[in-house]
Write a structure and sequence with these properties.
single chain, alpha/beta, Uracil-DNA Glycosylase, subunit E, 8 helices, 43% helix
Length: 210
Amino acid sequence: METYQVLPRLHDDLEAIQKRWDGCTKCRIGTIANKQAFVDYIGDVGEHAHSRVDILMVGEGPGRGEDALGVPFIGPAGKLLREAIEQHSLAGILIGITNLVLCRPCDSRGGPNRAPDQLEIENCSPRLADMISIMRPTLLVTLGRVAEENIGGNYPRERIWFLHHPAYLLRIGGKESAEYERYVERIGTIINRTRIYKERDDIARTVRHS
């Protein structure tokens, strides 16, 4: 059974971003991509389209499965990430997942995956910045070294957390590796810290408006 889910429709603000970037050919990968993998959600989705998320996870770029279906993190690494997340209670927590680039980084249609290069990341960065501005995550989570090195900007550093890319776990044995349990625990810490920050933010908003 697949663990990913696609909302019936995006929030209008996010849909506008998706439409602006649909069919982008600033990079060669845009000319050979099958589908762009824009965003997906894990957790307390509910029945309505969302603009805000509690956690936004950002990886490198789509793989073969994501390129085929247009949904981020549905390949083997993505499924491992989703299963690790779903070991925790997500009541009241909505997680968005996306990537530095919308299109699968590769050098030819059907060729092997690779990390996005700097030009591809820079070309797609205005789209990601717009998404972050609209989604306003309580915590921003970078998945892997490439995402960690290419995200942040004016976002508060204490609100940016690092998590290994799930592909790293696959390379060292997946669920059978000693690192997997630590990975699950790290995700639990991120979710718990998100709840703490949400409560603080709610109190701060109440004080400002009192």
